[in-house]
Amino acid sequence: MTQSRPPEVPVFLYWLARAIFRLIGWRAESQFPNIPKFVVVAAPHTSNLDGIMLVFAMCIFRTRLYWMAKHTLFRPPFGGLVRALGGVPINRESPRGAVKEIIRTFSERDRQILVVAPEGTRGKSERWKTGFYYIAQGADVPLVLAYIDYARKVVGVGPTIEPSGDMAADMQIIHEFYVDKVARYPDKRTLPLGDGVPQS
Predict the structure, then answer these.
(1) N or C: which end of the chain has fewer CB within 10 A?
(2) DSSP 8-state assignment for residue 53
(3) What is the pLDDT of residues 135-147, one digit of tens each?
């Protein structure tokens, strides 16, 4: 029997988020695995509303998430608040450097669940960015596939994937999982593989 994940979010936020989801006709399904560190792949992402729905779902799952934020947001007077809400500072001027910064944070914390939206933009692009894969591989943590499906009005958690080092094969599995998930704006969504080879 799989042990449930210990709660990391106050119970009043759980009940508030559940009430909001019930009011708008949405639901959260499944649960995050009870492991201390992993990267959450969040897709599809075509609207600012996606992030809001994810926050509600995280309260229902009672799971604390970390997310990447531009380092300048951590300056006074709001830097402390951004950090308290789960922000992890990165310098986006160097994408490769940002990946290394995030990998380092995994080694510095006993528990860290980092959420990444690999589409990288709310507009349509050719294919997903693959920084999320390199972060998981470099930090030696699994990927957990989370999704938002506007057709079914569901935010949920899918399979856990251990990066094999064969990115093409792993991305094919990820692509097949997300292909039937419906975005808020389907014409703007980007699929993992797009038209071919993943983008570095």
Answers:
(1) N
(2) H
(3) 999 999 999 999 9
Closest CA to 41 of 116, 125, 106, 99: 116
Stretch (H or E) spanning 42 = strand 37-43
pLDDT tens, position by position, 68-95: 777 777 788 877 777 777 777 777 666 5
What is the widest separation between alpha-carbon atoms in the chain? Answer: 46
Task: Output the six-digit token pair for 86.
Answer: 């789960």
The residue type found at 46 is: T
DSSP category for residue 73: G
Q: What pTM did the predictor assign?
A: 0.87
Q: Look-up: residue for tokens 């389907």?
A: 186
**pLDDT tens track for 121-164:** 656 778 898 999 999 999 999 999 999 999 999 999 999 999 99
Strands 87-90 and 66-70: parallel
The backbone torsions φ and ψ at residue 29, rounded to the nearest 5 degrees and listed phi first, read: -130, 150
CATH number of 25-183: 3.40.50
Cα separation, 62 vs 108, whole angstroms? 23
Spatial strand order in the sheet of 154-161: 27-29, 154-161, 143-149, 37-43, 112-116, 66-70, 87-90
- pLDDT for res 98: 81
